[in-house]
Each structure stands twice: as structure tokens, then as C-alpha cells.
Amino acid sequence: MTARSRRTMRAVAEAVAKQPRGRSAKNVKVHRAGSAPADVELSTSVAIPSAAMNRWERQMADWLALGESIGEIKWWAFEPLRFRIGKGAFYTPDFVVVDELGQLVAYEVKGHWEEDARVRIKVAASRYRWVRFVVVKAASKGALTFEPVLAHG
Predict the structure, then answer these.
(1) pTM to 2 decimals?
(2) What pLDDT digit, counting tens, does each position of 87-145 carry?
(3) Helix/strand/coil (H/E/C) assignment for every residue in the chain
(4) Per-residue pLDDT tens digits for 38-84
(5) What are the beta bridge partners of residue 83?
């Protein structure tokens, strides 16, 4: 990991961790270079809209709340960040977590995979190596399985 990536990761993690859930948040944009468009944007609201979640996302939210209550997770939110993956193209993970070590983890919860979603998360993982990307798949009887996305390139 380069020094620039570490600084970017630290800046995003600190900005994200300062945002309270359920209240309006400031826009945080992290630029790669002087006048480049923002690569990572923090949503203007990090409220948890459980009505907007499907049942798998609600189950994941419950799992994250449990992790937060026992200290394994410092902060988490539903769809708080979007990552630029190309010109005019963005990827928004379902959940972003700051774990107990201060690392950003982006979770994508899927009951069914479409090819465009696979491509977007793989491109994001390759471009933002300082974020750990994980796909959470719905399994039988309400179980969730976790599969890390490996960066290529």
C-alpha cells in the first residue's frame, strides 16, 4: 500500500467515523489529484432507512449492530459512500464498516448476482485497494455467507 493510499484511507475512515447515524452529515469528498473529481463521496445522510433495505440487508444490519455492541465494529452505515469506478460510473456498497482496527470494509449483500454488479465490485476492489470488499450472499434458511473480493491488476 502506498503512502498516498494510507493517507486517503485514513482521511475517509476518520470522516466516516465522525458521522453519527440518523443525522445529516457533511459531504466529504476525497480527491486523487488537484482538480480531479472526487473518487470517494460520503452521502449527505447516513441515516439507516430500514424500509429501503431488503430482508437480507436487514439481517446484515442486525449482524453489524451486534458486532458494534461487542466492540468488533467501531462504526457502520447503510449505503454511506460511493466509489468512482470510471467516467460517470460509481459503485455504492450496501454497507460500509470501520472495524476495530480502523480499516474500511465495504459489504455488498446479494440474494442474486447480476453480471454488472460483479464487474462493479471487482473494479472497485482493484481501484481502491485500501478498502476491503466483501460479498455477502444469501444462503439457505436465512444464513449469510461471506466472500472476500480479490483485487486484480
Answers:
(1) 0.73
(2) 999 999 999 999 999 999 999 998 888 888 889 999 999 999 999 999 998 877 778 88
(3) CCHHHHHHHHHHHHHHHCCCCCCECCCCEEECCCCCCEEEEECCECCCCHHHCCHHHHHHHHHHHHHHHCCCEEEEEECCEEEEEECCEEECCCEEEEECCCCEEEEEEECCCCHHHHHHHHHHHHHCCCCEEEEEEECHHHCEEEEECCCCC
(4) 677 665 444 555 668 888 899 999 999 999 999 999 999 999 999 99
(5) 40, 91
